[in-house]
Amino acid sequence: MTIIFSPPTESAGDAFHHGEAAKGNIEAAESAIAAVSAALSGAADHDKILLRAAAGAGKSYALVRMVGEALEHPNCSRVAVTAFANKQIHPLAGDLGKALGAEKVCLFVAADRLPDVPQEVRDNVSIATTTASIPRSCEVVLGTSHKLGALGERRRLLDHLGPAGNGSVPFDVLFVDEAWQLPRHRYSTVEKLAPLSVGVGDVGQLPPIDPSQNPWRGDPGYNPYRAWPTAYEGSATAFVVDLPAVWRPTAAQLPLWRAFYSDWDRLDCVAAPGDRSVELPPLSGEAAAIWGSVASGNPTLVEIDGLLAAEAADVDLPLLGLVEQLLIPLLEGGFSILSRRYDGQGTPVDDVRVHSAAPEGDPLIVVLATRNQTVDDATDMVQRLTDMYDLPDGVLVASTVDSWQGQTNAITVAIHPLSGAQQLDEFNSAFGRLAVTCTRATHGLLMVARSGLDDLLGTAPARPGTPLGEPGSRSLPRQTHQRILTAFSRGALTVEEAT
């Protein structure tokens, strides 16, 4: 049968693109830099500066620029950069090393994690595994919150490096990358390393620890497992600014991004229509219709009816088998990813074509699921297809959503968190988990689910309160899900399987 896709009901015809879109981010970063400068000069009483971003807004680029600008200030002699995980710190260290020089940038890493540091990063930074081995010439020290926040580390840094320009603590500014992933109790271990903290991050990311239960009985308004910036966004001494443009998605995906960040004044997209495309092999039937929709750049949702019953919520081999059937003709025929690249101001500079026979850069296809068992089954499928078609590394990958946040890929194939669900719960209706699922792809998004999403959302009991992890004020979970679905091209597929 031929699948007919209904188009998204939302459009982004008012969006800015290219340099006009990037200009908004440049201006936002400049305002944050001005706030840092004012705080360092004593002209403002800021102790927290928060640069909020949507997924794929180029926040790491902005952070590198802010570090460089801070070090130009006469009252700033040394800064620290931290994050929750090494996979966030390592690429940032490499970027800062390239920008400032290896002699000025030190990656402070645990000895047992040293083998995980990519060679490209090693080539551009100084590396220390102990406090005493940090070069005194370094102006930037990067480490995870666990490393920089270890017991007694502040004193060791002071003894070895001495105080920074402020005269009392080791650093003048503490930059926190992926700040909305760092829980309050981890931030408290590094907060006193500098008098000024600058948090940069995606407000839609999942926190590293489940914040759904508040163990702090003394104060119901305080939860040490919440992302730390949420405690300061309304503070009189906090300066907060949003990056109003995203670099990652296709222009056609922008309505989906806006559905997740609907409380923002505006959100634009650097990529213009036609800047990104997917060249498909000759296809027929359902595969041609589905991959054609994905290649258009529109987020695509296929709801499947007629599948055999799943064993459990996290064991749905029939649905995964259909995903495999859809992937086979795409992998068998080969495909290409076409991208327009831009300079730092959003101006197009050249075009790049990557074929699945010789992948480079980000993975081309990632299969995402929310539950570990489903990903275990998807990993088996990926290995099977890799062996069958002798796929090179980087063509096909499987991961949990939680593990893939912060990562980027060309095409996402994802199982909707509500697929097969009987009700909404804290896990399957989490805003952050769905946001990460939908915002990894630069070229195409295919979401699959068992039929019945509309019925589930139409009949699910209302759940009061704002789900933890959602940026800003939100409507009820079912209404949030319904709004997000309107940004998809939707099609229905009925299959016949033996009982």
Topology:
Layout: H1 18-41, E1 48-53, H2 59-72, E2 79-83, H3 86-100, E3 105-108, H4 119-122, E4 126-128, E5 140-144, H5 145-148, H6 153-161, E6 173-177, H7 184-187, E7 196-202, E8 238-242, E9 245-246, H8 254-260, E10 268-269, E11 276-279, H9 285-295, E12 300-305, H10 317-333, E13 336-342, E14 348-355, E15 365-369, H11 372-389, E16 396-400, H12 401-404, E17 409-415, H13 431-438, E18 441-450, H14 453-459, H15 477-485, E19 489-494
Parallel strand pairs: 1-7, 1-8, 2-5, 2-6, 3-4, 3-5, 6-7, 9-10, 12-18, 12-19, 15-16, 15-17, 17-18
Antiparallel strand pairs: 11-13, 13-14
Describe the 3D structure.
Residues 460-479 are annotated as: Disordered. The chain is an alpha/beta fold and 499 residues long. Helices cover 31% and strands 20% of the residues. It contains 15 helices and 19 strands. Strands 4-3-5-2-6-7-1-8 form an eight-stranded parallel beta sheet. A six-stranded parallel beta sheet has the order 16-15-17-18-12-19. The chain has a three-stranded antiparallel beta sheet with strand order 11-13-14, with no helix packed on it. The two termini are 21 Å apart. Mean pLDDT is 90; it is low at 471-475.
CATH class of the largest domain: Alpha Beta
Q: What is the correct CATH architecture of the largest domain?
A: 3-Layer(aba) Sandwich
CATH topology (fold) name of the largest domain = Rossmann fold
Main beta-sheet annotation: 8 strands, parallel
CATH superfamily of the largest domain: P-loop containing nucleotide triphosphate hydrolases
- Radius of gyration from the alpha-carbon trace, in angstroms: 23 Å
